[in-house]
Write a structure and sequence with these properties.
alpha/beta, single chain, 275 residues, 6-stranded mixed beta sheet
């Protein structure tokens, strides 16, 4: 009886060992993969191409961070992260990280944690090339002005609270929808971060049709969103961001995606989260 029990225990130990090996018992966790939320309709930042490839500055940043966490590029599952859904995607465990023009704000930090920031953008307006009704910030607070932004974005909140509470704000699901409205003259201006606007203006089909007003209405520090209170992951992501800046990869990614738009992306900001 004792011998039989010993044999069963030994067999169980072998099964457990094999299971651990199959599940990737190493520290990298690469066998399990990682899911990262990104935008899919923002040229220069996060765009899903017709052939299913994900490209853009945020995508390159996220790929670099994932590799520093021990994941190969093939381990990454990309998931669309609309502005209004980002906190829920993290809180529900649908994604591990989000790199999607995700501005760090006190309100968002109540539900999620951030690493970074890894970029500092500024809210601006994109208008048609021949549009002249708005030249400075004080021109914005006009009930006849039709502005478009995305539901759940800090840009939309800024318009309502600070810049133009009297303006007619149209909130769409995506910036691409806003751009279509701008092209069709259903709205006068698209407002969001200058980095996003530059990406749209730089597309071949849009070159020469639009202009940024250069108003610098706000500071928008982009962070990488993660589960609330996960300080261990936060530290690892911050370390990856620091390395990305130090080894020149950050500038290489920025030049690659923002250079064609002649957009002054500035320097990488100092990391403030988790410090």
């Amino acid at each position: 009886m004792t011998l039989r029990k010993t044999s069963i225990a030994a067999a169980a130990a072998v099964v457990l060992a094999l299971t651990a090996t199959a599940c990737g018992g190493g520290d990298s966790g690469s066998d399990d993969g990682i899911t990262i939320g990104v935008k899919v309709d923002q040229p220069g930042l996060g765009l899903k191409t017709p052939d299913g490839e994900y490209v853009g500055f945020d995508v390159d940043v996220a790929t670099y961070v994932a590799k520093e966490l021990g994941y190969k590029e093939s381990d990454i599952t990309w998931k669309e992260a609309p502005s209004a859904d980002r906190e829920n995607l993290i809180a529900n465990g649908d994604v591990d990280l989000i790199a999607a023009t995700y501005s760090i704000t006190p309100e968002r930090k109540e539900r999620v944690s951030f690493a970074g920031p890894y970029m500092l953008a500024h809210q601006d307006l994109l208008v048609r090339k021949d549009y002249t009704d708005v030249k400075k910030q004080s021109d914005l607070d006009d009930s006849s002005l039709k502005l478009c932004s995305v539901t759940g974005s800090t840009s939309a909140a800024n318009v309502q609270k600070d810049f133009a509470p009297k303006a007619d704000l149209q909130e769409y699901g995506t910036y691409s929808q806003c751009l279509t409205g701008l092209q069709n003259e259903n709205v006068d201006a698209l407002t969001t971060d200058d980095s996003i606007l530059a990406g749209y203006a730089a597309q071949k089909e849009h070159q020469g049709k639009f202009k940024l007003l250069g108003l610098n209405l706000s500071d928008e520090p982009y962070g990488i969103g993660l589960k609330k209170g996960d300080t261990e992951l936060q530290k690892k992501v911050n370390k990856a961001i620091e390395k990305m800046v130090d080894d020149g990869s950050w500038k290489k990614f920025a030049d690659k995606h923002f250079g064609p738009a002649d957009y002054d992306y500035g320097k990488a900001p100092e990391i403030t989260e988790g410090s």
